[in-house]
Design a protein that fits this description.
Length: 364
């Protein structure tokens, strides 16, 4: 492996509203800033610690919304001030990555970049580190976007899927045939059985020179006007420019805006024990089960004749539950949710919208 490690950078995306874990994750305090499992660390802190074993601390950037800046500063006091990027308005991941790439390219035009969500769990960290370093080495030598794929262990409709194509010029790396976002359960089962489809972890790597080409080609290059006006811009000038111009960025994900449009996308087959902690169902699948297949998260519960549930209640509250199978029971502040666990992501999105419309923002 001859990639110069000094060229490796990472951006952690931590600006989402976390609505898929409603009501425990709320717009004022979303999931990435919560110690959800009572471990003493939030999801953001766990992600940062995992990444800090691979990258120098001054090469790790955190992208968030301006509403959450204080949470990031409080939870990551070691983060250099210029490595915290606060967006003035909610947009999807493509604008976030475009800005991070712009800032890092200004520091090091030869940089290779890892983009990671802040709400994942990794069970085999040594393998994770090995795969990330191999991936960075691959993108340092290839003008290609590289995603990380995990072989499905169940027909999960809440995840994105990647169809594997021809082998690329590195072991366990293949060209991507297609992306499919959140299929229904029957398609997810077919994908799993075919052996051709992998879960899309949301982790992706690239060299910044090629990523810049992709952004110029597929998305409006809003930041190029700053480069033309002030090629030697300061961080303060860049922040000012973002505050004025970020709202004109399209509200589009990096997957849809760049990865699905590029003809040079590869996937690395990984096995580092991964789960998305952004959904109730994902958390249920990732956690250790009781004898009756229940997952109880930091809660005081008496369960009787109840199976396959996930339960999270506030401290100081006791629940007695009889005869419940396959449900989410979650309470936080002024909301109690009791909802079928299967395909709950779509249901919760619907309920959050309905509650916001009928009851107002205080419940969201």
């Amino acid at each position: 492996m001859d990639n110069d490690l000094r060229n490796n950078y990472c951006v952690i995306l931590a600006g989402g509203k976390g609505r898929r874990l409603w009501p425990c994750s709320r717009e004022k305090l979303p999931k990435q800033f919560i110690d959800f499992f009572g471990t003493g660390q939030t999801q953001l802190q766990q992600t940062y610690e995992r990444i800090s074993h691979i990258f120098p601390l001054d090469h790790i950037f955190v992208n968030t919304n301006i509403e959450y800046v204080d949470f990031v500063r409080e939870q990551l006091p070691q983060l250099p001030p210029d490595n915290l990027m606060a967006e003035p308005i909610w947009r999807n991941t493509a604008p976030s990555v475009a800005w991070a790439a712009h800032r890092i390219a200004h520091i090091n035009p030869n940089a290779n970049l890892l983009v990671t969500p802040s709400d994942q769990i990794v069970f085999r960290e040594e393998l994770y580190r090995k795969n990330i370093l191999e991936g960075l080495d691959f993108v340092s030598k290839n003008n290609s976007l590289l995603t990380m794929g995990i072989r499905p262990t169940r027909p999960e409709p809440g995840y994105g899927y990647i169809q594997v194509g021809n082998p690329a010029d590195m072991e366990d790396v293949y060209e991507v045939k297609t992306f499919t976002e959140k299929p229904d359960r029957e398609f997810a089962r077919m994908f799993m059985e075919s052996g051709e489809w992998y879960w899309n972890t949301g982790l992706f790597l690239c060299n910044l020179q090629y990523l810049s080409v992709c952004f110029y080609k597929f998305l409006p290059a809003v930041l190029s006007t700053l480069d033309e006006a002030k090629p030697n811009f300061t961080i303060e000038e860049e922040n000012e420019f973002i505050n004025e111009n970020f709202p004109s960025y399209p509200n589009i994900s990096i997957d849809y805006g760049i990865l699905e449009k590029s003809d040079r996308v590869c996937v690395m087959m990984c096995d580092f024990g991964w789960a998305d902690l952004g959904t109730w169902h994902g958390i249920y699948e990732a956690m250790q089960k009781s004898q009756d297949d229940n997952v109880v998260i930091s809660s005081d519960v008496l369960l009787d004749e109840s199976h396959g549930n996930i339960i999270k209640l506030p401290e100081g509250k006791l629940a007695v539950i009889n005869g419940l199978d396959g449900f989410i029971v979650a309470e936080q502040d002024n909301v109690l949710l009791i909802c079928k666990k299967e395909d709950s992501s779509a249901l919760i999105r619907k309920y959050v919208s309905e509650v916001q419309m009928k009851k107002g923002n205080e419940y969201v």
